[in-house]
Specification:
about 260 residues, alpha/beta, Aminopeptidase, 2 domains
Length: about 260
């Protein structure tokens, strides 16, 4: 597994402790290596390449969700096991061992008739807590994805796909358009600008589910931070950022927070 800067999986729990205030999202980047996934009718576009491009676009847009820590099953072209089921199991194991808060598996769709089009998002329909929250996450991601890409809305659907059935957190599987369906859509969802909009739509959906703002963190304003403490009653006297704080004042603030 790789973090936002290629972090080895052994470091993920340390990451989790460092960023304890953050939400941790595992982005499952489908297929890879020997497994191309769906292929466009003309053979020019592969699902494994597009999902990797989506993941890299999410990685590049991480500053728009500063309160979320992302990790990725892959940020290069590789697979995890020669056996397809063991390959899926390895991806699930990464998410569960890393104590992810959310699991988002990124795919692109296909149909035998080469006529399919649109986006759809799946969740595990088991009726338990993770399933209920997974449905909420799926709806948020689907709504934002469709809004941001103009892809046809195929809706949110329950399923028993392996990777969302075996994860122990709210999990969704996103089918971001048809690469192996309608040839015009395959071309559209493979364009770099569409890839970027897909990534942004997924991230907007995550933000909506978490109830946080999507966009870069506002510039740090130390005076505004002090004024907020004053307004909330944590401190009683107006202060300037350059003023020295003594231990008595510091202890008072900490004790007020602890109460």
């Amino acid at each position: 597994m790789e973090g936002s800067t290629g972090t080895p999986k052994a470091c993920l729990l340390i990451f989790r402790r460092w960023f304890w205030w953050s939400r941790f999202v595992l982005t499952q980047v489908s297929h890879g290596g020997r497994d191309p996934g769906a292929v466009s009718a003309d053979g020019r576009h592969l699902e494994k390449d597009n999902t990797l491009s989506i993941a890299r676009a999410i990685h590049g847009k991480e500053p728009n969700l500063p309160d979320v820590q992302f990790a990725y099953t892959r940020l290069k072209d590789k697979h995890f096991h020669e056996d397809p089921v063991e390959d899926l199991a390895a991806r699930v194991k990464f998410a569960n061992a890393g104590a992810a808060d959310l699991f988002v598996s990124v795919h692109q769709n296909a149909d035998k008739q080469r006529r399919g089009y649109g986006a759809e998002t799946y969740y595990f329909g088991a009726g338990n807590h993770f399933s209920v929250e997974g449905e909420k996450l799926a709806q948020a991601v689907q709504t934002a994805l469709v809004r941001n890409t103009d892809l046809h809305d195929r809706g949110v659907k329950p399923t028993r796909f392996y990777v969302i059935r075996h994860t122990v957190m709210p999990a969704v599987l996103v089918e971001a358009g048809f690469i192996g369906g309608d040839p015009a859509e395959a071309e559209f969802v493979s364009r770099p600008e569409t890839i970027g909009r897909i990534a942004e739509g997924i991230m907007m959906g995550i933000a909506e589910y978490l109830g946080i703002r999507y966009g870069p963190a506002p510039a740090w304003d130390p005076q505004a931070e002090i004024d907020t403490l004053l307004a909330d009653g944590v401190i009683n006297t107006p202060r300037k950022p350059e003023q020295v704080v003594n231990w008595g004042e510091f202890a008072t603030v900490l004790n007020r927070i602890r109460r």
